[in-house]
Amino acid sequence: MSPERIAQCAELAMLIELSSDPKPGNVDRCHDFSDIGFRHFIVSAVSAYPVFRKAASKRISFGRLLLEGVNAWKEWNISSNTHFGSLVLMIPLAIAAGMSGDLKHETAGVLKNTTVEDAVDFYCAFALAGARVADVSEFSLKDQAAATELRKQGKTLLDLMQLSQDHDLIAREWSTSYERLFRLAGQLAEEVQKYGLNDGVARTYLAALAEFPDSLVQAKFGRDRAMAVSLMASQALEDETLESARKMDFELLASDVNPGSTADLIAAALFISLLTGLRFR
Amino acid sequence: MSPERIAQCAELAMLIELSSDPKPGNVDRCHDFSDIGFRHFIVSAVSAYPVFRKAASKRISFGRLLLEGVNAWKEWNISSNTHFGSLVLMIPLAIAAGMSGDLKHETAGVLKNTTVEDAVDFYCAFALAGARVADVSEFSLKDQAAATELRKQGKTLLDLMQLSQDHDLIAREWSTSYERLFRLAGQLAEEVQKYGLNDGVARTYLAALAEFPDSLVQAKFGRDRAMAVSLMASQALEDETLESARKMDFELLASDVNPGSTADLIAAALFISLLTGLRFR
C-alpha cells in the first residue's frame, strides 16, 4: 500500500471515529464539548496527514513523528488535546503499514525497537499536548525532570509503556503488541458488516468500553466511576436501537465524563480495519 | 504557502462546509440523504488530498487533476457525485495558491490558460462523476460525441464555461474569474468573526442562496422552484437563531430539493478564506 493511501486510511479512521454516534461521553457528529468541538478534531485530523504519510515512507523515529503531529495542532491554533492517544496508537501502525511484512508482526517490531530518545520525545509531546493520564509512580509524566532520569536509566518508550500498562489502556496496547486492538479491528469489521458503518462503530465502542474501564475516566474520577461507566456501556449494548446509548451519552456529558481512551482505541482499530480492507456502503 | 498546507486548507474547507449546519437541503453534521451520507463526503474529501497537493506543486493540467480527483472516489467505492462542483472550483485555486503572485490574479490566469484538452478531460470527469447540470444547447454534457466536436472547434474549458454561465453558478464563477467567490470569502470571514465558525458558514450559505437561485435546483426542478428556494433563504436569514433555517432544511429535504451548487461555492469560499488567513476558535 502506498504511503499516500496509508495516510488516507489513518485520516479516514480519525474522521469516521469522530463522526460516528452515539459514542457516549465523546464529541460526535451530534454534539461538541463546551471547550472543544468537532471542528478542532477535524483540524487535528487534517493536520496529521503529512505525519502519517512520512511515517509510512521515511525512516523517522516514532518520537519525532509524534512531536511533529502535536506541533501541527499548534500551527492551526488548537490548544486542547484532541488526538494525542490516537497518534500514539496510530503512528506505529502507519510505520508498520509502510513495511513489507504482515501488519501485526511489523507493528510489534516497531514498538519493540523504540528507543530512549523516543521516550524523551514522548514526554515532550505529552507536555505540549496537555494530555491527561494516570500517574506512574516511577516516572511522573507531569515531571519534566523525569526526561533526564530516563536518559540516565536508559529507559526506552516501550519500557515506559510497560510501567503504565496497568493504569492506561494505550500503554497496555503498546505492552502487548496491540493484541486487543487487532481483535477489536476484527470485531469492528463484523459489526460494520452487520449494522452498517455508523452503528457498527458505535457498537464496537460500547463493547470496548464495557470490556475495560476507560483510563481517562479513571484518571479523572477514579476506578469505581470508570467501572460504573463500563457497566452502563454493557447494558446499553443490549439495546440494538442504540437509544440506551443515546441516553447514556446525555448522562456522561452532563457529568463531564469522557471515555477518551476508548475513542482512541476505536480510531486505531478503524485504521487497522481500513488497512486490511474494510468495506462499507 | 507549502503545497502540503494548501492541500490541508482545501480538505479542511470541504470538511468544514460539510459539517456546518443548518445548510438547508444539503448533507450536514445532522443528517444524511437516503442514498448518500456524511461518510461518503468524508471519504471523498480525504481522497482529494493528494490531488490538491499535486495541484499546488506540480505542473499538471486542470483536466488531469480533475480526472484524478473523480477517479480517486471510485477507488474508495463512492459511486455517487459528492464533490464534483467543489473540485471544479477548488483545483484552480490550489494551482494558483502554489504560484508566487496574488491569489486572485493567479487564479484568473489559471482559468484563462485552460486548453481544449482540459475541456475534453472535463467531459470525461463529468461523465465519471455522474454530475448533474443544466444542458447547454451547443455542447450537451450528456453527449459524449461532443468531445470530438470540441476538439474540432478548438473550444477550451473556459470557452465551455462561458457557454454555460447563464445556467450554472460554477461556470459563472469560471467566466468571471471567481469575482463572486472572492467576495463570498470576504463575507464569510466577517460572519465567522461575528457568529463563530458554524453559524458564520451557515449564514453565508443562506446569503449566497438568497442572492442567486441554485443551479442544481434549477436543473432538477426549474427556474421558478429555484427562485422560491432563494426567497426562503432570504427570509430564513432574518432569524439570527437559525431556527427558520432549520425549518427550511426539513422542508427541502422532504421534497428532495438540494442546493448543491451553493454548497460547492461555500466550500470554495472557505478555501479562499483559509488560504488568506481565516482564524476561528
Question: Quick gist of this model?
Answer:
Two copies of one chain form a homodimer. With 281 residues, the first copy, chain A, is mainly α.
Descriptive labels:
14 helices, homodimer, 281 residues, mainly alpha
Describe the protein in words.
The structure is a homodimer of 281-residue chains. With 281 residues, the first copy, chain A, is mainly alpha-helical. In chain A, 69% of the residues lie in helices and 0% in strands. Chain A has helices at 3-19, 38-57, 62-75, 84-97, 103-112, 116-129, 146-153, 157-164, 169-175, 179-211, 215-221, 223-236, 243-254, 260-275. The longest helix of chain A has 33 residues, at 179-211. The mean pLDDT of chain A is 92. Chain A binds chain B through residues 4, 7-8, 11-12, 15-16, 19, 29-30, 38-39, 42-43, 46-47, 49-50, 77, 197-198, 279-281, and chain B through 4, 7-8, 11-12, 15-16, 19, 29-30, 38-39, 42-43, 46-47, 49-50, 77, 197-198, 279-281.
